[in-house]
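Hi support team,

I've been running sequence recovery on a batch of backbones for a student project. Most finish fine, but this one hangs at about 90% for roughly twenty minutes before it completes. I'm not sure whether the input is malformed or the queue is just slow. I've pasted the structure tokens below so you can try to reproduce it. Let me know if you need the job ID as well.

Thanks,
M.K.
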């Protein structure tokens, strides 16, 4: 699946399109360079699912947990909890065990992971790879594999 995101105003529609394609999948690994828009897109996803808390990168906390209201937003089959990971500061994959990575990944909650290469060995086989490509005109193309 490919979603073109022209600008910030296009994010809500792109997030809804992405969520329609999620189905029963729960773990998403976002692969993109620094500044490509991983956190910005994840914030739009959370808003599309009715999260009212501020959504920010969990750079120092590693994981932020959000409560969603998917029934009210048209996604009744999705979990009510969203776990947003930023693994950039993980130097050794074993550090992920300290915050219970396996419990999160196999909880059935929605898991959105930035810098997944840092915890690659823990990712479930059915993890969906999401690549965000920055285009020459500043737009983004999101590829969901």
């Amino acid at each position: 699946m490919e979603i073109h995101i022209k600008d910030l105003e296009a994010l809500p529609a792109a997030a809804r399109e992405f969520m329609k394609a999620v189905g029963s999948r729960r773990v998403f690994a976002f692969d993109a360079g620094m500044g490509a828009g991983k956190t910005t897109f994840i914030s739009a996803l959370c808003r599309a699912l009715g999260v009212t808390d501020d959504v920010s990168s969990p750079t120092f906390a590693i994981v932020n947990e959000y409560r969603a209201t998917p029934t009210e937003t048209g996604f009744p089959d999705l979990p009510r909890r969203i776990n947003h990971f930023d693994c950039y500061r993980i130097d050794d994959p074993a550090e992920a065990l300290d915050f219970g990575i396996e419990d999160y990944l196999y909880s059935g909650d929605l898991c959105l992971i930035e810098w997944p290469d840092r915890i690659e060995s823990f990712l479930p086989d059915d993890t969906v790879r999401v690549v965000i490509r920055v285009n020459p005109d500043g737009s983004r193309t999101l590829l969901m594999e």
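--
Follow-up from support: It reproduced on our side and the slowdown came from queue contention, not your input. The beta strands are 2-5, 27-31, 63-67, 81-86, 110-114, 128-134, 140-144. No action needed from you.
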